[in-house]
Design goal:
GO molecular function: ATP binding; palmitoyl-CoA ligase activity
EC number: 6.2.1.3
CATH architecture of the domain at 308-441: 2-Layer Sandwich
Number of helices: 14
Strand content: 15-25%
Helix content: 25-40%
Catalytic activity: a long-chain fatty acid + ATP + CoA = a long-chain fatty acyl-CoA + AMP + diphosphate
Shape: globular
Structural class: alpha+beta
CATH topology of the domain at 308-441: GMP Synthetase, Chain A, domain 3
CATH class of the domain at 308-441: Alpha Beta
Oligomer: single chain
Keywords: ATP-binding, Fatty acid metabolism, Ligase, Lipid metabolism, Nucleotide-binding
CATH superfamily of the domain at 308-441: ANL, C-terminal domain
Organism: Tigriopus californicus (Marine copepod)
Length: 447
């Protein structure tokens, strides 16, 4: 059986035995559990398919679902099923996923309207002080297993209500979750946030945190039926002998792992291998480390690593993840030229926050004009440099120049995937002229 992955803009087929596709559902669910699901990943994502299957198993038996749709509503074709779904669910309000504490419409240049939730920073200074105090107070006691009903009543129940008020569990598996974001979601929504790690090639199995685990930055321990090991990656200077934690490329083995790539023997040979004990392994391309508790942490990505002119290695994905914590950044792509000494960045700015920065600088231009204003560009670069240093980045990792891109990056534009992952090569090709200019002038720029 083949699962088609369209996330990277190409058709990629992974060969599975059918039982492998149902394996993660079997291992995750052992008893009925009343629940509802709300997803953000595209349906082409294998993790999303399994999350839906798990939710169906918890909510009601499959026979009950089919009985409701087919028998009670006369749905007996794909077309009727689609029309039934639109009629029942199509008018539900979309709350957005970006920020918290109020809903607003943001009209794009192409006429599309993004509905998003606004940050606490838009409220008055008095409310910000109350929120910050309640946030730190609740975070402190949550890590000690205690509740904060007064803070919840004053602040956090209002945030929970934006998502229905009944959410109690969040599963994250699209990409490594920033530790601050992990804490923020858990504190503001009062939910259990579990982070996992898996791939299409492993049938959506890998590692997952335990629900009672209150740590951050980890993707948990291996799931039942799967083995995880690290192997040396000499080019990136990651070795299993590293101290205090062994580091290396993550490899997976076990029942759920695919047999290979469908009719692409070269890729299968590069990504799968058999060890001297006859065990088959899949090389993920991700770099991880095991902590003292045996939990896996994702620390790098092989294809995101670039070696600069003076020999320093820069993980582009790591730099992007840290700079994304700044509220000015909606999206970012960091680029490193092996023949240059620094990196540069393409940034999609938050319209609200960039306009606020412009007001502080005494600028009255439009959003598009602010993206070309040299004072604004220098201020943004300075802010991002400060953020990068505070997040532990080295100076050579922080971009020395940036471009502000006023148009959003969407799946329709082809710059990100359906799961909102960056298409790095596509972005690079589209903005290559701007990248060359940034390196030639070594100062902030705009398209």
């Amino acid at each position: 059986m083949a699962v088609i992955d369209l996330m990277l803009g190409v058709v990629r087929a992974v060969v599975f035995v059918y039982d492998v596709l149902t394996y993660p559902v079997y291992t995750f669910i052992q008893q009925p559990w009343e629940a509802k699901t709300r997803q953000n990943l595209g349906v082409v994502h294998q993790t999303e398919r399994n999350a839906e299957a798990i939710a169906f198993r918890r909510d009601k038996g499959a026979s009950e679902i089919y009985q409701e749709i087919i028998v009670r509503n006369g749905v007996d074709t794909v077309s009727k099923a689609f029309n039934y779904s639109v009629k029942k669910f199509g008018q539900k309000e979309c709350l957005g996923i970006r920020e918290v504490h109020g809903i607003e419409d943001e009209v794009q240049q192409n006429g599309k309207v993004f509905q998003k939730l606004s940050l606490v920073s838009k409220r008055g200074p008095s409310f910000q002080k109350v929120f910050n105090f309640c946030y730190e107070y609740k975070r402190y006691w949550m890590k000690r297993g205690r509740g904060t009903p007064i803070c919840d009543k004053i602040v956090f129940n209002k945030i929970r209500s934006l998502l229905g008020g009944k959410m109690d569990f969040v599963l994250v598996g699209g990409a490594p979750l920033c530790e601050k974001t992990h804490d923020f979601i858990r504190t503001c929504l009062g939910v259990t946030v579990v982070q996992g790690y898996s791939l299409t090639e492993s049938g959506c199995t890998g590692t997952v945190m335990e629900s009672r685990d209150l740590s951050t930055g980890t993707v948990g321990r291996p799931m039942t039926g799967l083995e995880v090991k690290l192997i040396n990656w000499e080019e990136g200077n990651y070795n299993v002998s590293d101290t205090p934690r062994p580091r290396g490329e993550i490899c997976l083995s076990g029942t759920p792992v695919a047999k290979g790539y469908f009719k692409v023997d070269s890729n299968t040979k590069d990504s799968f291998f058999v060890d001297n004990q006859g065990k088959r392994w899949f090389k993920t391309g991700d770099v991880g480390e095991f902590d003292s508790q045996g939990q896996l942490r994702i620390i790098d990505r092989k294809k995101d690593l670039v070696k600069l002119q003076l020999g320093e290695y820069v993980s582009l994905g790591k730099v992007e993840a840290q700079l994304k914590t700044h509220p000015l950044v909606e999206n970012i792509c960091v680029y490193g030229d092996p023949y240059k000494q620094t990196t540069v960045a393409l940034v999609v700015p938050s319209k609200v926050h960039l306009e606020a920065l412009g007001q502080r600088l005494g600028k009255t231009e439009s959003f598009e004009q602010l993206c070309t204003d040299s004072d604004v560009l220098e201020a943004v670069l300075k802010d991002l440099s400060t953020t990068g240093l505070s997040q532990g980045l080295e100076k050579f990792e922080i971009p020395s120049a940036l471009t502000l891109c006023p148009d959003p990056w969407t799946p329709e534009s082809g710059l990100i995937t359906a799961a909102f992952k960056l298409k790095r090569k596509v972005v690079q090709r589209q903005f290559q002229d701007r990248i060359n200019q940034m390196y030639s002038q070594k100062r902030p720029s705009s398209p």
